[in-house]
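Comment on both lines for my students:
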Amino acid sequence: MKLLLVGAESQVGRALVSCLAEHHVSVEYLSPAQALAATLPSLAQQYAGAALQFVVNVDHIDGFYPEGHSQKELEERHVLLPQQLAKLAEELEIPILQISDYQVFSGGGDQPYRESDEPHSQTLYGVTRWQGELSVQRFAHRVIILRVGTLFCEQGKNLLVDLLDQWKRGEGRELSTLLQFSPTAPNDIARVIYAVLQQLACDAQVWGIYHYCSADIATLYDFAEVLLAARTQFVGVENEIRIKPVQAVMPKNKHRSRSSATMPVNTVLRCEKILNTFGIRQRPWRGELTRMIERMSQPNVST
């Protein structure tokens, strides 16, 4: 197997690079900036003789706290980049796998979202994600779109790092018991992407949209409880951190731009389709979070 990977610097990208290396997959790398700056003919010429089997775009911005990104940046990374890569895949006559996420939905429903549910995001982030999905489906005919759950990992902007940073500042002690979500680690997503690519390489004709998030629905308070337990086990915490469950949709955040009326209450994805099509089962997130905190507690890993 040989693929063109875009977004290797992202949280999912770093995990996927490790996964592909472990399985001795040959990879060509293309940065989002390079893909956007180049013309389609030049890209097609560059990779025409590379014997690629797939284009895989895992470039992403964390959607849990997406403030701070301009409309231009979101449109470039969520819409224009996928469109360019879909056209490239079509020129090379190979499939494309495009990552997306739960924020194409408003989060206002009371049930986990299916692939067949109509996206109806209330945010620019979610709207541009949806537009990117449409672009890929418009310009390429062999497409896998993988929508994933809320990411947590050791580095970058995400729920785990944000909570730890807030606690260090003495903030973030009041946590919602209302928001339902499925915390998902990048290496779990990387496992899923590799499993999908393996089956596509065996000529499986199963194009379309799929959902994946880790097993076990949680609230922010649930996630923080597991995180605190892991921190206590592996990290010497000088001051005891006490968290409080609150009947609010989201934790207090002075930088938050969305009103409480538009905050999601449910961002869980249903994952039966990916199980029935590819045999990919959801894995629980609690054990992975504990292992992640153990790795972060090592002297050479920044917390």
